[in-house]
């Protein structure tokens, strides 16, 4: 059975202002969300981690495979009027938010489309709600997306695709998927993540020795 509600994505309006984006609540079908959430990989590090560094299994693995499959790609292509054939995908997973996360940015130029899929239960906190911004000002808000379980946000990266959120510290689960310009980008990003993970482990070991 499909875990993702592609029909709901097809029916969602594409917003054009301040840049191209759309939001779909309950994109992960509510009847399977609990199982997907149960299989979310356990993560002890903050920051975004590539799936290759995690124990990806069960329903969560099935869901990533669906996101990486042709039905989802074709729906995004139709919605955004874009050809993603031959463009590699890149995934990262986040389990925790640091107080320093959420600063305004547009995403790097190598990203063509950014997909965010949130995996929290209902979100009560004031912080951590992603804002689609009209400018590089966190109060110049076009839309706010609470990272509730199953909510999908997709936007077309551009020099003005400003987004960010008020600080939040603690458990905040999200999957980011990008279609990127080339395979070299994916290799470079994975290398960068590995370096960063190594340096975090070294720091943790140094603290233990103290
Ligand atoms: O977690 C989010 O809501 C957004 C994260 C983000 O913008 C990023 O990692 O580039
Ligand atoms: Fe971003």
UniProtKB/TrEMBL annotation:
UniProt cross-references to Gene3D superfamilies, sorted A to Z: q2cbj1_9rhob like domain
Protein name: NikM protein
Ranges where the Fe2OG dioxygenase domain occurs: 86-182
Keyword field: Dioxygenase, Iron, Metal-binding, Oxidoreductase, Vitamin C
InterPro entries: Oxoglu/Fe-dep_dioxygenase_dom, Pro_4_hyd_alph, Pro_4_hyd_alph_FE2OG_OXY
Cofactor(s) demanded: L-ascorbate
Chain coiled-coil ranges: none
Residues annotated as transmembrane: none
Molecular function terms, GO-annotated: dioxygenase activity; iron ion binding; L-ascorbic acid binding; oxidoreductase activity, acting on paired donors, with incorporation or reduction of molecular oxygen
Pfam families listed in its UniProt record: 2OG-FeII_Oxy_3 (PF13640)
